[in-house]
Amino acid sequence: MTELIGVDWGTSNLRVMRLGAEGQVLDRRVDPRGAGRLSADSFAGVLDEVAGDWLGEAPVLIAGMAGSRQGWIEAPYVFCPANAAGLAAQLARPVADRDIRIVPGVALIPNGLGDVMRGEETQALGLFEPGETGLMVAPGTHCKWIHVEGGAITGFRTFLTGELFAAVREATLIGRGMGQPGGHDAAFDDGVRLALSDPAVTAHLFNIRVRSLAGQLDPDGAADFLSGLLIGAELAAEATDRASPVRVVGEEQVAARYERALALAGFAQVSRVSGEVAVARGLYRIWKALP
Amino acid sequence: MTELIGVDWGTSNLRVMRLGAEGQVLDRRVDPRGAGRLSADSFAGVLDEVAGDWLGEAPVLIAGMAGSRQGWIEAPYVFCPANAAGLAAQLARPVADRDIRIVPGVALIPNGLGDVMRGEETQALGLFEPGETGLMVAPGTHCKWIHVEGGAITGFRTFLTGELFAAVREATLIGRGMGQPGGHDAAFDDGVRLALSDPAVTAHLFNIRVRSLAGQLDPDGAADFLSGLLIGAELAAEATDRASPVRVVGEEQVAARYERALALAGFAQVSRVSGEVAVARGLYRIWKALP
């Protein structure tokens, strides 16, 4: 029996899930109509088209960019520390006549100078049991590190890693002629270690050129070294307790790189969880926290 | 009377100077035929075209990319610590029948994994008296910080600042719609202070987006904040004695930004020297160090 229709409506993708009595995913549908391409008045129609036949079965709870100012309806940010009850208390309702609600995003601090996220907060709350302390890493264009303690998000930080990787390759001298990453573990490890030993990443970027000129990096190795540097810079900045469990949420290839880097940095308990499982559990937990 | 013909042959520019008995610049000519556009066999002809009428007056000493592997003739790197006598002992001679010599570049360490420069070493040696300790900052596409002590270059580091500034603007989401830097001192200062307080520059880059969304940065302010972040990251990495004299060598507008950032970081003795004066003095000093 369907307990909840869980929706993860990101910028570039829509995922609708039927969730069972324990929050498990019974069925899912994926559609490319992400929130980034939709105007506010088209969300309802898209949801009906993708999963209209499911919507009568259970209430609908949506996480992600559908709740941004440019989304369906703005669900204003909740501030850290943010737990499931705090998010549940601030759900937005985009339409009056249907049981559809949107999870608010989370902001680090109230003054607007900190950091913000939409969607990852729901994954993070799904990843850890209420009594657990841990760290979620969500690699991607903008990689997020989220600290969870006692069922609440206590802090988080966004790194421009994926986008910077692409920008350095596309628009700099050191990126010119750079090959594809993924095949040179030793070069990746060297990048991670250099960033861990010294946070001066803008100097290390020039080091790619120096090593290439010295014949120490071939074009593909240079890409792996760059990837290692940028991921290593995240690890250097997130100098947290290495004994805490870390859950990596993300696409296979990049998640494997983060796992490798986390091991190099001495994190002992690293595991991987699919984004779908994380968001489904988080939606279910927030739903259950409704008064 | 001309004592030396000093030449600064960079990647994108050629500067030929007649230097007097004290190393002062008596006259100069500038040409756009930088070393980056020339093949090895065309350097001699270009030098004759630009200053053939001067070349008989005195010996010629060249600093810069003319001595790189892709230049006129390779003048292999000298390693740190490098002083005027050390460079003078390793001058390269591109032609057998004329008194033309090229100053070698300097490498930080022998294994090819450190850092390298060509041209800035000559400026740095020109900026400080043999007994002085100080720091040269040469802003630009690849900004160099060079430590000089007792007449020798003891260390240096290259930051990808200028190129990264351009790449972030051209090829990232936060760069989209970014305006022009230079007009928002407060935004620049905020960027410098944030980078000084925490070296996680790849996280601070995302902060530009957060501040912009919160209405804290307009498009021009965002460009100044980015500039402040990247320059601040250099200062954070160069945690040197704030009482040492710092000489900034570079183009007016960008040098003024560095001076502002250096003052924010607590450097008490900051002055500006033109690149021409610096390289002329350095060439003269290296010439005088010949046995």
TrEMBL record, chains A, B:
A GO MF label: 2-dehydro-3-deoxygalactonokinase activity
One of the GO BP terms on file: D-galactonate catabolic process
Domain of life assignment: Bacteria
Pfam family, one: DGOK
Name listed for the protein in its UniProt record: 2-dehydro-3-deoxygalactonokinase
Organism expressing this protein natively: Brevundimonas goettingensis
Lineage of the species this protein comes from: Bacteria, Pseudomonadati, Pseudomonadota, Alphaproteobacteria, Caulobacterales
